[in-house]
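[audit] Reproducing an earlier prediction to check determinism. Same input, same settings, fresh worker. If the tokens differ from the archived copy the diff job will pick it up downstream; this log only records the rerun itself.
[audit] input (246 residues):
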Amino acid sequence: MKIGIIGAGHLGATLARKLVAAGHDVKLAASKGPDAVRDRATELGAVPVASAQAVQDVDAVIVSIPLANIPDLAPVLAAVPPEVPVIDTSNYYPMRDGAISALDGGMPESVWVSEQLGRPVIKAFNAVLAHTLAARGQPTGTAGRLAIPVAGDDPRGKAVAMALVDAAGFDALDAGDLAGSWRQQPGTPAYCTELTVEELRPALDAADQARAPAHREALIQEFIARGDTATHEDMVARNRAVTAPR
């Protein structure tokens, strides 16, 4: 497939590397323009482009930028054909993004993203740490392969996203419609807990929408306080412990 990725941070760059390795053609864009991402894109095997070029002549667009910056992309994505799925990897962290009243009131993050962009999105790759994505992928059919939830309202777009999840080395689990995508947001048992597909479904079902924001804030404050001493394994273990169903 031809894929445009907007956002060259940890997650976007890791996705670029994984999808190039899987044989896909990837264009990579960053907010500061193609020159700012040129060396990084070349290293990853992707083509550095401006955001407007990243969405031209592609089979899918992946948006991997801070949630607060999502509205800035609406003009860029306006020309993307409706049949091209837009995959949203963002998460809401008020400390970084500022308070967003609709999200604080319970609107699922990707529903808000869809409203800001003026088009539906598919929620995927948000519930996995960048290190997990980079280092824990395995070939299709491997026992104990980790899974990633994918939510959305368009079956075709969801199928594209699920194929990319598989290409990245993970089982894709259909997590239902976009309205229910809060079940894979920060502070839930499915978020950054490294589960197999058999474990992920019960985790999604056990999510508590009322408790998730408090879990999210407790975890981020803990990781900030620990600084560089928190290892990847610590992060996964603490997400599991704090968000475990009660």
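[audit] rerun output stored. Observation attached for the diff report: The CA atoms of residues 8 and 14 lie 8 Å apart.
[audit] end
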